[in-house]
Design goal:
disordered N terminus, 298 residues, mainly alpha, 10 helices, single chain, elongated
Length: 298
Amino acid sequence: MKVTAQRWSFLDEFMNKEGEPIGVIIQKSDGGYLYTTTDIACLKYRYENLHADRILYYIDSRQHQHLEQVWMIARKADYIPESLKLEHHMFGMMLGKDGRPFKTRSGDTIKLNDLLDEAMQRATALIQSKNPQLTGDELKEVVEAVAIGSVKYADLSKKRTTDYVFDWDNMLSFEGNTAPYLQYAYTRVLSIFKKADLTASQLTGKILLDDDKERALAARLIQFDETVAAVANEGMPHLLCAYLYDIATLFSSFYEHCPILNVESEAVKMSRLKLAALTAKTLKTGLDMLGIKTVEKM
């Protein structure tokens, strides 16, 4: 690595059309720094202070060479060891309904603040139409969880490497693979325990799997660890989203076909309540891992 006047780094591994090493700017002539400098500093910090042994970058595919240059400079400067795993996980583009990159009507890039503000407005109208009894802080909590959760989930639930269409109606729907659907499934389980006037810690007995719907739900629930491991290994959050959606739909089918509170056998009642409790715990844990909040009622 050759550094000129503490402003440039020339890497022999990257050549221009003339066959000369490409210069990477480290510091501008006015003393200012660029993204490369910041990324090198972040890399050094994550290794030395956070003790990272694996770092995953979820950045546009067009930034691949930039990252490779940052990593190489950091290694040659001995800021990080060769053993530190560095991975660039590229992602597709967010498209509008017209199939073009998602922008405002004027053609400008949409700002995140504006996007979240609109999500809050749409979620407020949605929740008020579903449950007009919610008011004040309670309404605010639910709206925020649904609005922010919907935006996050819309991105995370799609396969990272493919383009997807940004659609408000689908994003905020209570049907299909969406955040509101999963959040509602969670509150649905909590409502069962409220009716039963019980908590999960009060449940006794073993889980009995006599019905096909019970077995299907239980079999998917025990695959949670396996799913999380796959997400970590492959860097694909949509695998967890698909899993949680399966859990929610399987629970819905179980709930419709297997009476819980109105069953005569106390052992069966306890068993089905335990399955419900595991469902709620799994949904909450999974959504927490995705950075999506759950609420007690919607």
